[in-house]
Sequence to fold (103 residues):
Amino acid sequence: MASLPWSLLKFSGDTGDTPEWKRFDGFLKSRLQHMEPVLAAREWLAGTFSIADILMADVLRLVARFDGLTEYPACRNYIARATARPSFAKAHADQMAHFAKAD
Fold:
């Protein structure tokens, strides 16, 4: 949940010195500060790769897209592990092909 309002503000360009930006940026950073040591200590969230990792990697990918993980190397490494999986590569390629057909 911490990434959603942060991402919406990023998409809209509202990342200045507003109270909203400060609130949501701080909220996201506090969650990432908790996530960083967890991901530094283990490969996947719940032991073996699971749906939890699919969801978390997708959330963190959006944050990374907007350079929100520059101070969180374990989170970046986690995304790299998740997106390097062959099943991710196939699902991503299939999704992009679907969107390309619509263009």
